[in-house]
Amino acid sequence: MSHASLSAHSKLLTLFIFLSIIAAAWSRPVLAQSDDDTALLERSSRAFANVVKSAQPAVVNIRVEASVKSRGGFPDGSDEMFNNPFFEHFFGPQFQGPSRRQRQQGQGSGFIISRDGFILTNNHVVDGADEITVRLSDEREFKAKLVGSDPQTDVALIKIQDSGQLPTLVLGDSDALEVGEWVIAIGNPFGLNQTVTVGVVSAKGRSRVGINEYENFIQTDAAINPGNSGGPLLNTHGEVVGINSALFSRTGGYMGIGFAIPINMVKAIENQLQKHGKVTRGWLGVGIQDINEELAKSFDLKEARGILVTEVQPDSPAAKGGLRQGDVILRLNDLELIDVSDLRNRIALITPGTKATLAIIRGGREEVIELAIGEQPAGFGKAGINPSGQGGLEQFGLSLQTLTPELAQQLGYSAKQKGVVISAVEPGSAAESAGLRTGNLIDEVNKVAVTNLQEMEAALKKSPHPKRILLRVRSENLSQYVVLVAE
Question: Is 300 noted as a catalytic residue in this protein?
């Protein structure tokens, strides 16, 4: 073998030894790391199991029975003829046959929050129930009484009597919950007691879902199915961070999107239900809307943030506190506000009579005002109108007419209100895209008050941008600003 061949062979042997040493060096930490990962997974698994083991005794199954009235019931089955719609058309509903009472049953979940038997659940679980039965994890059963409920948030408080010390769950801090955190749901889906599912927090502050009037949902991918309603959503410390309330589904079953009421919202409601059996909400007396880029330009704002005051009701807490139409609310009690739902939820949870501070933008400058929160009055009605008449915003797809006393009465507006009624909205128009509907009342054009069609046309003629109009529009008892842009 030549000297050159030996040299080449030596180099190859050296390289082989070097690579073997490197491979051996890497193999040891990889194996160690694999062992560490397995140990970490085992610890995580035991942590979940410990949370569940500790929480399950306080999670209960709730069964309800209600008596409902139904028509029909002739023993020979002849009631079918009387329930026929053609028969009712000629003879009226009094001939629908005799009424009878039927028993309906339902079920859901709940969890014990005090050793003397207070239990939180959903309002829709116990709403209208004549009889409520609670079954504990140890199979004991108790009759429960309804302490109070709040349909607007879907929260209910019930109570059982027990001579012993009942297991309880600790209420945590839902505001501290982060998107991506692990959460655990426990309940009784489809009657399967003490079912546990695990997932993460998918989102926070979900509103405008259309389930409750006041919404600030925690969204989770932990499986929530019918029967889970009212059960706890737990963090990894075993603290309740939400009440499982609803699921988004096109099939009626789990599709990866569930909603829970944040426990911080529930705490204030539970306290009032326990003391008074009902909830009294705070109230400002304003119309509000979120600010988009178009509204920010129209109100000379540097950026699209804050909540625009579209209306201040006379003699309301807002009016007495100095809040004005056109103000932009940034913060409530030094807390930055996210959107309209955030402000509405926070105001509702403030005890009437409490002082509050609002940071606002007025005339381009930031100011702080203090006012006393009032008590929320009764709700508002609905209105409708038949299309008719013409007006001056045809390029945006609108037909209009002056609000008359007759129209005001028909639509539910007060006799003092003035403006121009939308009598028709052209399909596919800018007006329809902006959300305008038949029956809406326009009382401002480009920040100028209008009481009839003539004043509207005069305001439109003075507009510096004829293809871009700012309207203040009333719907039922609320108003908002809308920007229309012609193509």
Answer: no
Question: For residue 275, what are the CA distances in angstroms to 113, 146, 157, 279?
Answer: 15, 13, 11, 10
Which of 124, 149, 202, 298 is flagged as catalytic? Answer: 124
Q: Taking Cα atoms as reference points, which of 214, 233, 206 lies closest to residue 222?
A: 233
What was the pLDDT predicted at 17?
55
In CATH, which of 2.30.42.10, 1.20.59.20, 2.60.40.10, 1.10.3720.10 is domain 394-485? 2.30.42.10
Domains 174-276 and 282-375 share a fold: no
136-168 tens-digit pLDDT: 999 999 999 999 999 989 999 999 997 678 999
Q: Which CATH architecture has domain 282-375?
A: Roll (2.30)
The yes-or-no answer on residue 154 being catalytic is yes
- Token digits for 90? 């000629």
Paired tokens of 23 = 């491979």
Residue 395 burial by Cβ neighbours in a 10 Å radius (0-12, 13-18, 19+): middle
Catalytic residue among 109, 149, 150, 154: 154
Separation between Cα atoms, residue 145 and residue 158, nearest integer Å: 6
Sequential DSSP letters for 345-375: HHHHTSPTT-EEEEEEEETTEEEEEEEE-EE
CB-CB contact of 230 with 220 (8 Å): no
Protein fold of 174-276: Thrombin, subunit H (2.40.10)
Boundaries of every domain in the chain: 174-276, 282-375, 394-485
**Amino acid letter, residue 40:** L
- Residue 388 to residue 399: CA distance in whole angstroms: 8
Whether residue 432 is predicted with pLDDT greater than 50 in this model: the reply is: yes
Measured in degrees and rounded to the nearest 5, phi and psi for residue 362 equal -135, 120
In the annotation, is 388 catalytic?
no
Neighbouring residues of 196: CB distance < 8 A, sequence distance ≥ 6: 52, 56, 184, 185, 186
Catalytic option among 149, 174, 229, 399: 229
pLDDT tens per residue, range 358-410: 999 998 899 999 999 999 876 533 322 233 333 457 778 887 878 878 778 77
Does the pLDDT at position 468 exceed 70? yes
